[in-house]
Amino acid sequence: MSEILNLAKGFEEKSRQLAGDTERNLQSEFERHELFISEALKSSEKKISAAISARDQRLSQFVLRGWAWILLTVITVTIACWGVIWYQGHQISDNWKMIAEQKRAIAQMRDQGGNLIWTTCGDSGKKCLEIDTKAGSFGEHNQYMIPKEY
User: Fold this and answer.
1) Distance of CA 91 to the CA centre of its chain
2) Residue 113 pLDDT > 80, yes or no?
3) Are 146 and 117 spatial neighbours (Cβ–Cβ below 8 Å)?
4) Torsion of Cα atoms, 89 then 92 then 98 then 102, to 10°
């Protein structure tokens, strides 16, 4: 029985040694596999980061172009509005000058009898002038009278 015991001890010893070798080999392979996966993840991370960075740069350019168009549009509209306001200001100024000239002309006409009231009289359609009867008549034969509103 001692031989069987020796064989069993030898087998157990070999089994332990084989289990230890297998464990060391597996540990070594796992470390190698872990290193490979770590490097693959780092490589993927770099590729993804580069892709995200490129996309962000394209989006930034796109947004910058959009803001540039908006700014250009605002400047154009502002210049156009300023031009319209400037033009209208000159038109208003010219109109004020024309109104002042017309007021002066009206005052001058009023001073020269421009406020007289003319109409047509009778069936013949002759021109008639409204007379201020309260002012009286003048001349040798009272042939002159003062027009109303004069």
Assistant:
1) 29
2) no
3) no
4) -150
Buried residues in 64-93 as b, exposed as e (16+ CB within 10 A): eeeeeeeeeeeeeeeeeeeeeeeeeeeeee
* Structure tokens belonging to residue 54: 């490129």
Cβ atoms within 10 Å of 144's Cβ, excluding its own:
10
CA 20 to each of CA 14, 17, 111, 129: distance values in angstroms, whole numbers, following the listed order: 10, 5, 133, 140
- Cα distances (angstroms) measured from residue 116 to each of 2, 41, 125: 159, 105, 18
Contact (CB, 8 A) for 134 and 149: no
Instruction: Note the pLDDT of residue 126.
Output: 87
Q: Could you give the CA distance from residue 20 to residue 5 in angstroms, rounded to a whole number? A: 22
Instruction: Summarize pLDDT for 13-37 with one digit per residue, the tens.
Output: 888 888 888 889 889 888 999 999 9
Rounded Cα distance between 20 and 14, Å, is 10
